[in-house]
Design goal:
Distance between the termini: 56 Å
Strand content: 5-15%
Shape: globular
Radius of gyration: 22 Å
Mean pLDDT: 77
Low-confidence stretches: 1-32, 35-135
Amino acid sequence: MNRRTDRRLAILATAALLVLAGCGTRVSHSDVVAGAGGTTVSLDNASIQALKTAAGSAAAAAPAAATTTRTAANAPAAATSTTKTGTSTGGAPAPAPLVSGTVPAAGARAGKTGATAAAAKPGGGTAAAAPAAATAADAPCTASGAPLKLGQVGGFSGVEGPVTADARNGLATWVQYVNAHGGIACHPIVVYAVDDGADPARAAAAVQDLVSNKGVQALVGVFDPIGFPGILSGAEKAKIPVIGGDGIDFAWNQNPYLFPTGAGLLGAIRGALQQTVAAGKTNLGLLYCVEASVCTNGQKIIEDETKKAGAKLTYSSAISLTQPDFTAQCQSAKNAGVQAMGMAMDGASIGRVARSCAAISYHPEFITNGLVLSPQNANDPDIRRNTLASASAVAPWTLDDTEGQKEYHAGLAKFAPGLTPDADSIYAWAAGKLVEAAVHGLGAKARTAPITTGDLMTGLGTIHNETLGGLTPPMTFSPGQKAAPLITCVYFELLSDKGWTTSSGSKPQCTK
């Protein structure tokens, strides 16, 4: 199969996924495995076959959707993956993990990857700050250790799918990149990514299966605003850490098993409001979805945060993510003189709001989190005309000003060249880097035995003023902490007819 055929198949698969997601149909419940041994991000064969079948039935829809590249199939080599699969109970195919059987190349370093070898060290990111044992931990690998198994759970299909798909691709790309550089402390990484269809019950069951049957030591890079309560309950029951993810829930800073990357949700809300008010927009509105608890919970604090920012909330309304038209809400907000509208919803819904408001010649600025927008949403001329203010927990995906950002872009360029950089993939990449930092905190002993859940918890407790090479504001966790400290330092982005821009660059801005 030549490259042109691969690309056509990927486009058809993308179109099929979008058609099915729009109908609420799940393409595949199979796990997706990312591991060593390949040169590109790959899906398991069961998922690929499902995509091929869907593509055949949706070929007629392909021309309209061909420019949309926001699914787990958009890594160019996914259609030719040769990952082995088996069968699991219940008839759903289950992949065998991809694990490198070769010793890393001479000179490959354990626990560090690419240009950020020094920056990823705890204690401010410099080699001088690392303990003496860390030097031994960084010595070239002479043998491959036991694989470190991680699980990723997310709402990768249904209404969340178009938004969260690149979080799966981003984490898979990190795995490929790390394993190409010798793994972490000479341990190759295997990630099982499971789609829970944005269903909390399925999310909890997925966590149990990952721990009991796949033997994962931690969850990493979870992206599931709707199914997150299930992920959290599963992690609490299994007593495993959840390392990085979308951060779109207040629980990320309220639970001992959650370790967020960068700023918390409250920080993102404050940052977005601060950016909007600084632009002279002080009469605000809010539309919030009823499907996710974080939306309804957030609505309860928005009014107070709006006042603190020097603005007022003059209109608010609950909406549904399946709502086809928002003319009534737009008219009410226009009548209330709303200049900027908070959007607690997915990117597709934001696009429908923009079109409904445009129909009555109303163009308020939107306020949201960049995570909810796919590259397709970001190219929507209606959204761009309104402009959209965002505040992110991690550094902007559009820039490469820091070693962490440079490594992220290098990883995508080599292992997922068809993947458009975006918020979801860089958040997932940062989650992987936090795993690296935790293992590095264990020192040389991480090389001598399999890495356990207890080891990861211990390693996370050593993290102090860690920025992951400039990907996040300084993060500090403590041994046995009751909850991760709330960080309110964020990065500003603005989407307009010029595309994504940032007024803060790659330097976090701290809010009060």
